[in-house]
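Tutorial handout. Part one gives the primary structure; part two gives the three-dimensional structure as tokens.
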Amino acid sequence: MVPLLLVALLACGGESFVPPQAKPSPGACAASTAGAALAACGGVPAALAEMPPAPSGINTLPESQQAAVVLGLFVFLAAGTLLLVGPIFQFLQQLLPEGWFKNWQKTWPILGAFYIAAGVAHFTAAEAFESIYPPEGTWGFWYLPGSASFHVAWTGVAEIAGGTGLFVGALLLGLAGALQMEVPRLLRQIPALSALGLFALTWVVTPANVYMYTHGAQMVGLTPGDQPIPVEFHLIRGLLQVVLLGILWSYSSAAREEAAEAR
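Part two.
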């Protein structure tokens, strides 16, 4: 039995014999000129080992701590979104004159145009988006099937479709309302469903933004000077993402209620 166990352990590269404290961390590999070699012995993917320490310093931490940071970032985004769609938006509705908030809310579908432009960029600047797709093994748990080009392509199509449904759909509904035209129930729901889809899609593509923060990944050809983005920018982008998520969720809820009332 013991020889069989030894054979199995050796077949796995003998990694189990390496004490936890002796196993090179991603940061150690990143800081070394022999990053690829360290990656082979430490289990760190070569693509990550060759990256220098990010401005955030997260990729110099052990993978367990990196994973904890990623989890914390998602919790921050979720908590911020809940806070925005709840107390903050309710406070604004009470603060503004009656009807102002709802009228302002009706302008939110313009965000659909932003998603359309972003989706088109997935194809016109595909390399830039592929360069921020997390490689296998990132944070110690990222093992999503499919290539970077595949995920960049399908999310681009989804952004174009969702953005069109939100922006054009809301525009046509507004035009139909102005002309007092009857709109089928299913068509009335398109902007709301599109906003809900974009809300989910924004969460889906968030790991790419997180990867830029934790590993200093750059959008090749789009990032100024192809240099890592400062930490302060990531904080601002995180806050803007909370606003974006809150707007999409709030608009979707309001539009669904309005469509239900129009039956």
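Part three, for discussion. The first helix runs from residue 2 to 11. The two ends are 72 Å apart (CA to CA).
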